[in-house]
């Protein structure tokens, strides 16, 4: 049994789950100052993700832990090379958590506006940086023979990577708007549906430009063409289907196909990378692969046994929490102060 392949697939699934679940979290946080007309609206928006946001972040913690244990060289090169962006991401996530936890501790307007800003920037910055990070990875990075990243911050913040960050921000914002259309009522729901309809065409154009440029700027499309059944084709089909259901005002299906678009888009990244985890732009021989970056087979075998036991428990618990908190939230549900 090739445990390296198994754990590459599992880590891909963890990141995909994180992007789908935390994606609408980030989208809701980004929309918070734009979709809300008053404090009651803001409280409704925050309450839609209140039971979920911290559990959704567990997917990232688990993905990082699995990467550290299964592919320590991948973890070391990624976190050392992307130290500043990842530090900014961590700081943003801390401020975002503080925004959720402390916003309602005081009634003063300035206090709540401050923590609303924490939620907004703590959602926007990580979404942007995730797009920048993965775009850099699929572009190829200056990795030397010793597996060390030899570039700098300006290398990471290149124009194509920033475009990738913008694509992720816009897609997550659409995902958040569709989620709000399922979890809110009345005027707030109408505004969420309107924002989703406005966003779709700009996202289609910008993502199309990003994908076309990807043929020349990334390693993703080597052997992965636009043919029926391929991940790129499925991503396009699901994105168009999402728009059709939006126009039919079938928001549940629209949200599902929007989530499927994120799944297929992330699958393009991991499928296109395999068997590499961090391609080198200096020499293909210096690229980190699932084999030269992995732990021992014994370590991977023990991890597999542990995952086989605990992962179903975590999935069952999270699925139950979504079921329990599935009702829409109206203005009447917010107690007056």
Q: Overview of this structure, please?
A:
The protein is an all-alpha fold and 337 residues long. It has one domain. The protein contains 12 helices and 2 strands; from the N terminus they run αααααααααααββα. Strands 1-2 form a two-stranded antiparallel sheet. α1 packs antiparallel against α6 and α1 packs across α8.
Domain module count: 1
Q: Roughly what fraction of the amino acids lie in strands?
A: under 5%
Distance between the termini: 60 Å
> What percentage of residues falls in helices of 4 or more residues?
over 70%
Give me the side-by-side strand order of the main sheet.
1-2
Give the ordered list of helices and strands: HHHHHHHHHHHEEH
Total helix count? Answer: 12
The profile of the biggest β sheet is: 2 strands, antiparallel
Shape: globular
Give the key terms.
two-stranded antiparallel sheet; mainly alpha; 337 residues
Summarize the structure.
The protein is mainly α and 337 residues long.
SSE topology sketch:
Elements: H1 3-35, H2 39-49, H3 53-70, H4 72-81, H5 83-102, H6 109-139, H7 153-156, H8 159-183, H9 186-217, H10 231-247, H11 251-273, E1 276-278, E2 288-289, H12 297-324
